[in-house]
Amino acid sequence: MLALSNLERLDEEVDSLVARLRDQMPEYTTVPTAEVRTYTAAILRSALEQLTVTATAPDAGRIGALAELARRRVAQGFPLEALTRSIQLIARFVLAAFDEEAAKRGIPPQVVLEAHDMAWQFATDAAGVIDQVRHEMAVEAVLRETQQRADFLHALLHGQLSAVRVAVEARTFGLDPSAKYQPLCARPATERDRAALTAVVLRTSATPEHQPVLAVVDGNLVAVVPRRPVVGDQWLVAVAEPTVLTDLASSFDEAVSTLEVAQTFGLTGVVTIADLGPLPLAMLGADTIAQLERHHLHTLDDGQPGRQDVENTVWKFLEHDRNLDQTALELHVHRNTVRYRLTRFHELTDLDLRHTRDVVLAWWLLAHRRVRRS
């Protein structure tokens, strides 16, 4: 094995190499000379250690040390492309010195070619390390920005920001403190649904003047949107009325409550509190409701055949504004079957759907049962 011990003196030429780096690469003017010298010496030594006749591959451990240098350079605002070029320059410097030494010592051409291959392999692997660092830091930047956006929306929508902070931080995320926005809340079932819904909301709620801001907060997809989005029936999105950013907290509470009710009753699309009608009343868990349910609806729970069909038919009948034909169509039964089941409901519960008071009470109790079962 030919150990290139005589090339150890190249370590003394680091200052010359640093001067060359500064002359050929203006980016190095922003980095202290002492630091440039330290890392140049380390890279130079790593490159020299590769140049042995019996070496077959660069040492990943030595090359991996470049990751620390790459991260430090990024923190200093130093372009990673410039770091890659500087490593190539160092490789050329080493090879020039090696060729000079090889000529003096009569080293065979094949050995010189192998040394060149090893030096450029070192530069190639170093460039790979730098590219990996570039990718990792890009991912870290995205995650950091995502978390900052989530933290901002959480504080904004929970009323934890002063008016001054809202004015300052809103602009960071592209929001206009003087404009009105709608709070939005959704609970997509899967990560794929969340990504797809996010894309739809971003696209359909943006205006030429304003952009939405979305994030995942407490497991929910939440957003501040300049206008009501347009989503398909495969999703449920709750929004509240537009308001200025400093007043969004109360509106967001409304959106969350709207989502809870809409989800319980299987609604889809974009829903506001106005779309719920009396449905929120069914969410009240008063003891009186339980007492009335036991009094009127206990016969529906006695396990007799057909009782579940009676209850479901009445619910659909009320949902369709007491329209026999629409109810029969949805249930795929004859309208006379619907009539029969309505009569049976009257017999079993003593609630006559021809009377307004009984209609209201029947709807309320049946809706409450659906909430409890959900």
Please give a handful of descriptors for the protein shown.
6 strands; disordered N terminus; six-stranded mixed sheet
Summarize the structure.
This protein is α+β, with helices and mostly antiparallel strands. 60% of the residues lie in helices and 7% in strands.
Description:
The chain has 374 residues and is an alpha+beta fold. It is 60% helix and 7% strand. Strands 1, 2, 3, 4, 5 and 6 form a 6-stranded mixed sheet that branches. Strand 2 and strand 3 form a beta hairpin. The longest helix has 49 residues. The N terminus is likely disordered.
Overall outline? elongated
Oligomer: single chain
Distance between the termini: 77 Å
Mean pLDDT: 85
Number of H/I helices: 14
Number of strands: 6
Report strand %: 5-15%
The helical percent reads: 55-70%
Radius of gyration: 36 Å
User: What is the H-and-E element order?
Assistant: HHHHHHHEHEEEEHEHHHHH
For the largest beta-sheet, the strand count, sense and barrel status come to: 6 strands, mixed
Low-confidence stretches: 1-7, 53-58
Structural class: alpha+beta
Topology of helices and strands:
Elements lengths: L13 H11 L8 H18 L9 H5 L1 H10 L4 H26 L3 H49 L5 H10 L7 E7 L4 H15 L7 E5 L2 E6 L10 E4 L3 E2 L3 H17 L4 E3 L15 H11 L9 H13 L4 H8 L3 H15 L6 H18 L1
